[in-house]
């Protein structure tokens, strides 16, 4: 946790005032709280002050304290406690908060910090030369399941690799809209590649269509007798047993493990040199029969879709441009990779 102090006096502006819109908004916000509890508006007001000026100045803290009839020290305590408040000027296009707590640390936040140091500034809270970007390390931001992640203003960027993170920084610098949330094939915090439970779509769709009917049936309809149950249409159709279901799932799994390609003879290439491929993915690719750079370089669109499907990571092959990377590696190894991409293969 970083030490949080107000910025030096010489960069503190003398005064602060909300602009007309924010002043109106602040009055409405304070009015939401019961009489005598207006101080509860301290966090939203400080946040609005930060959004207006880019950081929380001493003058803004005092102004908010006056509005809420609070001692200055109480508002200062709030502003210095929460890391979402910036106490000195930060990058005008992005101030990046890198989560460095255990789950993110174990999943690579150290590499994200290295990217910040090389692309922005060696020191946290210092801007780049253009004053557009800055960074800091913070404690858990509550998206651990999609670690490693960063937060920029109010949005989070999750499931990051150093390569994708570099792109995100470039997109902020260029003023582009940056895709928020998970940066891989994952919806919110669902499993990568899609749901693995409750996948019985017809049953789910049916229950979604008939919620009221279901509730009524539960509360008012009498339970059928055993005789009535036996006479129901389809009662003699046997449901698949648990064992049969398990066997079917096992057969599906076995089928998914079957190779898609005939692995070429000879030595395997180190597919981990392709950015985006780690030891686990390399093993899975080998299981599919992909063992060389040349094979990756020649994948057709249809084959990419098949591999995507098998490995449940739709889009990653194209997003990380595995084909171009593999082509360079196949042509001249790490040297050619460096020539084409201007950096070492990892
Ligand atoms: S540990 Fe990084 S978001 Fe929780």
TrEMBL record:
Q: Spans of biased composition, class Basic and acidic residues? A: 225-239, 249-264
Q: Manganese: present as a keyword of the record?
A: no
Q: Which GO terms describe its molecular function?
A: oxidoreductase activity
Lineage, top-rank taxon, reads Bacteria
Indicate the enzyme's highest-level EC class.
oxidoreductase
**According to its UniProt record, which cofactors does this protein need?**
[2Fe-2S] cluster
Q: What is its EC number?
A: 1.6.5.11
* InterPro entries attached to this UniProt entry: NuoE-like (IPR002023), NuoE_dom (IPR042128), NuoE_N (IPR041921), Thioredoxin-like_sf (IPR036249)
Q: Print the keywords alphabetically.
A: 2Fe-2S, Iron, Iron-sulfur, Metal-binding, Oxidoreductase
TM stretches of this protein: none
Q: Where is this region: Disordered?
A: 204-264
* Family label: Belongs to the complex I 24 kDa subunit family.
Q: Which NCBIfam families match?
A: nuoE_fam, PRK07539.1-4
Protein name, entry field: NADH-quinone oxidoreductase subunit NuoE
Q: Which gene encodes it?
A: nuoE
């Amino acid at each position: 946790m970083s030490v949080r102090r107000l910025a030096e006096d010489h960069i503190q502006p003398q005064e602060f005032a909300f602009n007309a819109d924010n002043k109106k908004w602040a009055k409405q916000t304070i009015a939401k709280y019961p009489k005598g509890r207006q101080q509860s508006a301290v966090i939203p007001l400080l946040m609005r002050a930060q959004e207006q000026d880019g950081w929380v100045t001493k003058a803004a803290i005092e102004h908010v304290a006056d509005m809420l009839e609070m001692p200055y020290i109480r508002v200062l305590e709030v502003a210095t406690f929460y890391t979402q408040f910036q106490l000195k000027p930060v990058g005008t296009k992005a101030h990046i908060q890198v989560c460095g707590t255990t789950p993110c640390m174990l999943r690579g936040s150290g590499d994200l910090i290295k990217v910040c140091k090389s692309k922005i500034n060696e020191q946290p809270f210092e801007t780049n030369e253009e004053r557009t970007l800055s960074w800091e390390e913070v404690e858990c931001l509550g998206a651990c399941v999609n670690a490693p992640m960063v937060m920029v203003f109010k949005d989070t960027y999750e499931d990051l690799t150093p390569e994708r993170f570099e792109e995100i920084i470039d997109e902020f610098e260029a003023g582009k809209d940056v895709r928020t949330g998970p940066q891989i094939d994952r919806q919110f915090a669902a499993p990568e590649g899609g749901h693995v439970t409750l996948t019985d779509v017809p049953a789910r769709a049916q229950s979604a269509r008939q919620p009221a009917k279901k509730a009524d049936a539960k509360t008012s309809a009498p339970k059928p007798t055993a005789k009535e149950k036996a006479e129901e249409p389809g009662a003699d159709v046997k449901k698949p047993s648990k064992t049969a279901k398990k066997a079917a799932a096992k057969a599906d799994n076995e089928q998914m493990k079957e190779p898609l390609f005939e692995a070429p003879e000879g030595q395997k290439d180190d597919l981990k040199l392709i950015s985006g491929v780690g030891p686990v993915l390399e093993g899975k690719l080998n299981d599919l029969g992909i063992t060389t750079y040349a094979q990756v370089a020649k994948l057709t669109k249809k084959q990419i879709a098949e591999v995507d499907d098998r490995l449940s990571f739709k889009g990653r092959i194209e997003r990380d441009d595995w084909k171009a990377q593999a082509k360079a590696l196949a042509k001249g190894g790490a040297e050619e990779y460096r020539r084409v991409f201007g950096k070492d293969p990892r």
